[in-house]
Design brief:
By secondary structure, the protein is mainly alpha-helical. The chain has two domains: 117 residues, no CATH class; 86 residues. The protein contains eight helices and four strands, in the order ββαααβαβαααα. Strands 1-2 form a two-stranded antiparallel sheet. Strands 3-4 form a two-stranded antiparallel sheet. A hairpin with a 2-residue loop joins strand 1 and strand 2. The longest helix is centred in the first third of the chain and has 29 residues. The N and C termini lie far apart (41 Å).
């Protein structure tokens, strides 16, 4: 069974993987931002667990999944067959690492195949994920204007997580997107990587947005 959304086709397995990854990331980030296992106990005792997971689902969960869907859309536009596959082992590690106070999240990846693609096409497909995160950060930014409360929390987390994901994935190391983009065009890579790092440092580490 498959579902088609405009030009995108999703198999039942792919939809299942997307939902599992989304929920697992929501739980992992909720636990991480609560401070690990002890924070989780406090959330459960105080009745704030559902709200914490909801915030993580609409910030971290959306950030990760839209990143992967950005790859899928770009690959499809270039005539390739693309599908998301969750990495259940890494999702388990994400939840466990959050319990001990740090977070390593690699929910899965979009795999694409089909006709031979140029280095430019591969580079643009790789760049699409971080580009989506930057766009999402801009969409979350107006929520920061809210006078405290849940709305500003969602805005802060949305901006911080998306900028961090964009910068991290553009690092030219191993299988990260930055490797593919830099292999295609160093100038394009620099034009994407440097601003994303500067914005991440300013927003997350200087002004402490989202934390």
């Amino acid at each position: 069974m498959s579902v088609r959304v405009r030009r995108l086709r999703f198999t039942s397995r792919e939809l299942f993987d997307l939902v599992v990854a989304w929920v697992a990331l929501g739980v992992a980030f909720a636990v991480f931002f609560a401070g690990g296992g002890r924070g989780l106990i406090a959330l459960l005792g105080g009745g704030g667990f559902v709200a914490a997971v909801a915030v993580s689902l609409v910030t971290a969960g959306v950030a990760f999944l839209c990143h992967e869907l950005g790859h899928k859309v770009a690959a499809t536009r270039f005539g390739r067959v693309a599908h998301f596959r969750a990495d259940y082992g890494m999702l388990f590690i994400a939840v466990i690492s959050a319990l001990v106070g740090f977070l390593f999240a690699a929910p899965g990846a979009v795999y694409h195949s089909g006709r031979n693609s140029t280095a430019r096409e591969h580079g643009l497909i790789a760049l699409a994920g971080p580009a989506v995160n930057v766009a999402l950060a801009a969409l979350f930014a107006p929520l920061l204007l809210a006078d405290g409360g849940l709305v500003s929390l969602v805005g802060g987390r949305g901006v911080a997580i998306n900028l961090f994901l964009a910068a991290f994935n553009l690092v030219p190391f191993g299988g990260l997107d930055g490797t593919t983009v830099k292999r295609w065009s160093t100038s394009v890579w620099l034009g994407a990587f440097v601003p994303s790092v500067v914005l991440t440092v300013l927003v997350v580490f200087v002004f402490g947005v989202g934390f």
